[in-house]
Specification:
- The complex is a heterodimer of chains A (504) and B (482).
- With 504 residues, chain A is mainly α.
- Chain A is 75% helix and 3% strand.
- Chain A contains 23 helices and two strands.
- Chain A has a two-stranded antiparallel ribbon.
- Chain B is built from 20 helices and two strands.
- Chain B has a two-stranded antiparallel ribbon.
- In chain B, helix 7 runs parallel beside helix 11 (248-264) and helix 13 packs antiparallel against helix 18 (410-436).
- In chain B, 60% of the residues are buried.
- Classes of the chains: A mainly alpha (504), B mainly alpha (482).
- Chains A and B meet through strand 1, helix 5, helix 6 and helix 7 of A and helix 16, helix 17, helix 18 and helix 20 of B.
């Protein structure tokens, strides 16, 4: 049985060990180093595929479970497993990383071995976050992510990189240490660090609210939710293209995943009591941040703000379930909300990655991210322009692309909660189209505005492969989202049944 | 009482150290300048032999000898091995530094070995007198070592400061001891514990005694508000001496706290009346002041001095929890801290060379371009000090927080993590300098092979112990006896 193999461990440790090998090989044979890195990344993707194909979507139980003691003195275990919520995110991680490696192929001249190694180690650690079922194992992976990302932004980033990366590090570190205290507190309540054990732990409302706030600090910073989003535009703008892609496509998802794995099941009553707060923050993110995106002059900043708005949809979808639960007895609306949030996360992983890669293609040629430096790119780079317009449409939620599916599901679910929530959420279809398409209009269309643009060469084969793969993924998920929804269905239903029962 | 030679078996590590110190002293007299390396070799081999001797006499039983003034228990075995190994590491780092600065004298090793002897005596003390004896032996050697570079006015100043403040602290400690002796009538820790449990003493005198005892202890540990000597001594002393001073004696200071407070006065730890309350104040102040002032430092030795102060605060958190888990956590933290500290100063030594002292944070700039491997080691050490997983520093903090929360002092854990966020800033600033900045000084590092190997082991141990913390933790737990 393939499900008995330690596939999760392989997916975690293959890239980490491979990353250290790449690091050790140094920069003398830069080309060989890059090929090694790519091989490892692709191999990891292949290794992770059984998670999808051998996955039993009929059950909500944890699958591919591995469990051995790690620090027996403190009941910490090396305990991993996946369900329908975490598995798609793992596949997303292993899918995006090879693309990031390819994207950095020629661009990174300074110490490419360290660059590639950082991304591979990052990949393993992120898969670890999604698959950990022991709270301390989760926390170790969660914090370990900071180290490679700190270096990626700081070493290969733009001019203001040091400010951005220290801000990024301290923000996220600040968010997570309080979660650590909450986890230790629950350890003394339940007697182990087993996350599934935390799910069934009885907690009073005050305790739940305090724990909920500790989690909120950690996850809201990561998602990021308004008003703790301010690190993201800085980090994105300064990060190298690959760093932006990983940040937007995967790291933000870890915050959303945290809500589903920790906040909702562990503190359902506090989540219910405080759902107005999250819904409010989400709607502000969707509407206000959308307007903020509209006025950006810097393409990466614009996409960063658009990410915050899109992630607002995710948290909205997760937390309207309580209001839907009050309005009707059927859980179908609530299922729609959470599944919509999940689909939105995966889809945003593809689209934001693609958008940042598009900006990267332009930046590599003209070394500017300012919208005003471009104009009429379509005249010199027709193939690239086609891709960029396609991804922009997807970002704006065009039906037929993956961007539409998640947003539509969340808006549908919001209608069952409250008309005004749905109304506010739906404004994103207008605002999102406005800021994305306006940017595309200024950058891609029109006459050639400068000598720089006139001298542009169209995409090379490497860039075509990367963007082409993502375009295929966006289309596939947009036209045929059913497999993704089916995979998570049992787990989401199980989660909803769990949170419908009060812990008080 | 009849003298019985088998009584001496538990003291063999001390005997071995004393012999070694005398041997180095003698050999050094008769060798020529260019053979000076012999003193170093004898010292290092001797330290390893002493480790072997310590392990040979180690057992899970407790032996109390010399009319109750000396104790050998699992805790003393582990702490002694820790002290000896960390001393070995710091002497190894120190060698090249001393040679390059014409400080390569036999006295360094003699003084160092007597200091180690003082530490082992402290670790194995079972009475106030023995502990004071060990403490003073350690302190006197350290005063001399701090001023070891006699041509350096800074070193002399640091030595003087250390001596005056250290003497004051010893006075406080003695005063406290005299009060406790006065009201309980015993100097021995096990008897003291019995008297305390009977309540057969004057409470007010006892509290005063504990206050003075804790003040003396706080001085030796370098806890706020008795920390003033730490930055000056770290700054003024030769870096090679600091590598020693900042690592092994911390383990001894932990033993001092355990023997004084836990062995003798464990029952008096409750609430604000007992030593728990005093340690809470010291711990919170140390973490706060240490982490905040460290941010303002431009000299890396001073920065690490303030970082030590904050780490001492964390170690105190483990002790004040007053449970076996707490003591285990504090012990784990101390051993890990000694390793981290030795490694960090090892890197600073490696960056220095003849005629150039790496002292300022800016000297770290662009290390990744000059030597990526040791840049990586420093990265691991710094993240470990900041407590970021997967390095072992995280587990040290985790276990301490665990212990603190288990005794319902969750607010204290929150204070601890809040200050460690502030602390993270100055550690990652070092990483920033190493990785993100351009080197001001392009001279390639010249590091001896032995130092290279040891620095690599030291740096990688942060990662390896972080991935597999269970081994060291179970050793600590066994030493505490839980």
């Amino acid at each position: 049985m393939i499900a008995d193999w330690p596939i999760l461990s392989l997916t975690v440790w293959l890239p980490i060990v491979g990353g250290f090998m790449v690091l050790a090989s140094g920069d003398r044979e830069a080309n060989a180093t890059k090929w090694t890195a790519l091989t490892i990344a692709i191999l990891t993707f292949i290794v992770s595929l059984p998670l999808w194909f051998a996955f039993d979507s009929a059950t909500a139980d944890m699958q591919f479970v591995e469990r051995v003691p790690w620090v027996p003195g403190f009941d910490i275990e090396y305990y991993m497993g996946v369900d329908g919520i975490s598995m798609p995110l793992i596949i997303l991680t292993t899918f995006i990383t090879p693309l990031v490696v390819i994207a950095g192929w020629e661009v990174i001249q300074y110490r490419p071995s360290q660059y590639m190694a950082a991304f591979l180690i990052m990949e393993g650690v992120m898969v670890g976050v999604f698959s950990a079922l022991d709270a301390m194992l989760f926390y170790v992976f969660w914090e370990a992510m900071l180290i490679p990302m700190f270096l990626i932004i700081g070493v290969w980033g733009g001019p203001n990189r040091v400010y951005a990366t220290i801000k990024f590090f301290l923000y996220t570190f600040f968010g997570s240490v309080f979660m650590l205290v909450a986890l230790i507190y629950m350890y003394f309540q339940s007697g182990s660090f087993d996350i599934l054990g935390f799910h069934t732990l009885k907690l009073g409302l005050t305790e739940q609210i305090l724990i909920f706030i500790a989690f909120l600090l950690a996850f809201a910073v990561k998602v990021p939710m308004w008003p703790v989003h301010t690190w993201l535009p800085d980090a994105h703008v300064e990060a190298p293209t690959g760093g932006s892609v990983i940040l937007a496509a995967i790291m933000l998802k870890i915050g959303g995943y945290g809500f589903l794995r920790f906040s909702l099941p562990i503190t359902p009553d506090a989540s219910h009591t405080l759902d107005w707060l999250i819904i409010g923050m989400s709607l502000i993110a969707v509407v206000y941040i959308g307007f903020v995106a509209l006025i950006q002059q810097d393409m990466k900043k614009l996409i960063a703000y658009s990410s915050i708005a899109h992630m607002g949809f995710v948290t909205l979808g997760f937390f309207i379930v309580f209001i839907i639960g009050q309005n009707s007895d059927s859980t179908s609306g609530a299922v729609l909300g959470i599944e919509g949030g999940m689909v939105q996360m995966v889809s945003h992983g593809f689209i934001s990655a693609a958008m940042f890669l598009c900006v990267g293609v332009l930046y590599d040629r003209l070394h500017s991210r300012e919208i005003k430096d471009y104009g009429g790119v379509v005249n010199t780079m027709p193939v690239f322009a086609a891709f960029m317009v396609f991804f922009a449409m997807a970002n704006a939620g065009l039906p037929g692309t993956s961007g539409f599916v998640g947003e539509f599901m969340v808006i549908l679910a919001s209608f069952q909660a409250d008309f005004w929530y749905a109304f506010l959420a739906a404004t994103t279809l207008i605002i999102g189209a406005a800021y994305t398409l306006w940017m595309v209009k200024r950058v891609v269309f029109g006459d050639v505005t400068s000598d720089g643009v006139a001298s542009l060469e169209d995409m090379n084969r490497r860039e075509f492969i990367v963007l082409g793969t993502l375009a295929a993924a966006v289309l596939l998920l947009g036209l045929w989202p059913a497999p993704l929804v089916e995979v998570m269905d049992a787990s989401v239903n199980n989660l909803l049944q769990h949170i419908a029962v009060s812990k008080l | 009482m009849q003298f019985d030679a088998t009584q001496l078996i538990p003291v063999l590590p001390e005997i071995s150290l004393l012999t070694l110190a005398c041997l180095v002293l003698l050999v050094d007299l008769f060798i020529r300048e260019e053979q000076r390396i012999a003193s170093y070799v004898i010292t290092q081999v001797g330290l390893l032999v002493t480790v072997a001797v310590t392990l040979a006499v180690a057992s899970s039983e407790t032996q109390i000898i010399f009319d109750g003034s000396y104790i050998r228990d699992p805790m003393s075995d582990l702490l002694k091995v820790g002290v000896l190994l960390v001393t070995f590491i710091s002497f190894l780092y120190a060698k090249d530094y001393l040679i390059q600065r014409d400080l390569f004298k036999g006295e360094f090793y003699t003084l160092g070995l007597f200091a180690v002897l003082g530490m082992t005596v402290m670790i194995s003390a079972n009475s106030f007198l023995t502990i004071y004896l060990g403490l003073e032996l350690l302190a006197l050697c350290l005063y001399a070592l701090v001023a070891f570079n006699r041509d350096s006015p800074q070193g002399a100043e640091a030595g003087m400061k250390y001596f005056v403040l250290g003497a004051l602290a010893s006075g406080m400690l003695l005063y406290g001891i005299s009060m406790i002796y006065g009201t309980t009538g015993t100097l021995q820790f096990d008897e003291l514990a019995q008297v305390v449990s009977k309540g057969d003493m004057n409470q007010i005198v006892m509290i005063f005694g504990i206050v003075f005892l804790v003040i003396g202890l706080a001085f030796k540990l370098g806890a706020v508000p008795f920390h003033m000597w730490v930055p000056d001594v770290y700054h003024g002393a030769p870096t090679a001496v600091v590598a020693f001073l900042a690592s092994a004696p911390k383990i001894a200071a932990f033993a001092l706290a355990m023997r004084l407070l836990v062995d003798g006065l464990a029952e008096l730890n409750g609430g604000w009346q007992g030593w728990q309350g005093m340690l809470i104040i010291l711990a919170v102040l140390s973490m706060g002041v240490g982490n905040l002032i460290a941010i303002a430092q431009t000299n890396i030795k001073r920065m690490l001095a303030y970082s030590t102060i904050s780490h001492v605060g964390f170690i105190m958190l483990g002790i004040l929890a007053g449970t076996k888990e707490g003591y285990t956590a504090a012990m784990f933290y101390t051993l890990v801290y000694a390793l981290m500290s030795a490694g960090a100063f090892g890197i600073i030594i490696a960056l220095s060379r003849k005629g150039f002292e790496a002292e300022n944070l800016d000297d770290m700039k662009g290390l990744n371009q000059r030597n990526p491997w040791f840049a990586g080691m420093m990265l691991l050490l710094m993240f470990s000090m900041a407590g970021v997983p997967p390095t072992v520093g995280f587990f040290a903090k985790l276990f301490v927080l665990d212990a603190v929360i288990s005794v319902d002092l969750t607010w204290l854990a929150l204070v601890g993590v809040a200050f460690s966020i502030i602390g993270a800033f100055y550690y990652i600033r070092v990483v920033k300098l190493i990785y993100f900045d351009q080197p001001e000084d392009e001279t390639p590092l010249s590091i001896g092979v032995d130092t290279q190997v040891m620095l690599s082991i030291n740096g990688l141990s942060m990662l390896v112990l972080g991935l597999f913390p269970a081994g060291l933790l179970s050793l600590c737990a066994a030493a505490i006896g839980s």
